[in-house]
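Closing statement on the fe (ii) ion sub-project.
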Amino acid sequence: MEWKTQFTPEEVAELLERGVGFGVLDVRNEEEFRRWRLEGPNTPQTLHIPYFEALEDEEAFVSRVEAELGRGPILAICAKGGSSDWIAQEILRPRGFQVANMIGGMEAWGSSYRIRLLPESKQDTVRIWQLDRFGRGCLHYVVASEGEAILIDPPRHIERVLELLSREGLQIRAILDTHAHADHISGGPALAERTGAPYYLHPYDGIHPIDVLPAQIPFAFLQEGMRFSVGSAALDVLHIPGHTLGNTAFLLQGQKRYLFTGDSLFIQSVARPDLGGRGEAWAPLHFRSLRRLLHLPADTIVLPGHYASAAREQRADGLFAAPLGELLRSNPDLALQEEEAFVSYILAHLPEFPPQYVDIKRVNAGLLRLDEEGLNELELGKNVCALSGAYTTS
Ligand SMILES: [Fe+2]
């Protein structure tokens, strides 16, 4: 294929999915590189050389690039797309390297989406779109039937959601968050303000677990047993505490059954008990909640809120979805059938939670207000929502 001089993050994600071969030259500083990297279903070979090394000794820099990545094709990346562009244009391309810059750098990589219609839903009376924020491994959903839509865990970049709704001619009936998120900023309150549709959250998650302060945003209460109608379909609320106390899942009954699991059950793992240092108290709840989900019919299609590894969890058609019966066979975290063993396993594998998660939850509760720059800073990096045992960087 023709190697351009620049690619958008969406184009890069597509190249990775198609298995197009290229090397990555990452020129961010050490700390930024350690925090997160460009990954995908086919993660490319990555060479990390901080930008300042190119300034200090240009020839040594060029020889290292050539020794490790050859003369291309190479994708140069940095934090915001400026210094990598300079290196591509001023240093490598004049020397004959086939090198492209990723527009907007890792900040744009973390704020980009691929939107896919779940093919199973094409024959159904409902249609389901999965919005994949691929740089962070976050999944968001639009569920539609007969011109109406329900949003599940909508992302911070609400324009992407509004574009989809207007393109498909859909009216929002309700905006639901499966729980108060700690890893990303919810678009729920902003969408409610913009569209007038009600925003729903379980009341237990309306209290910040560290500050123990009530949320300062308007929201209606989600409750076990509530039913939302969307066109000819119905969406039932299941209260499944464990990841958070107010954690919920949504069961959609169209011609098929779809389960939006948020942060409970993932394709290759289960969620961690979230924040608050309440692992001992919350892990048994988590076990019972997961068992409850696992008793649903085996053909129920699970649509999770996150993934840790596209290479291991993404289907050939790009979606993250699997029938419950298949997860029972393939998800290693579901093998533990006894509560005690499951709880010990969870407590032994708790990942550290990034310190910015406390502030993300404050933003989501309306307890902290930040400008765009501050929000970008908080959301940098990949989600750490699955147990560490299943979390990999490939
Ligand atoms: Fe979460």
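Residues 388-394 have pLDDT under 50 and may be disordered. With this model delivered, the sub-project is considered complete and its resources will be redirected to Aim 3.
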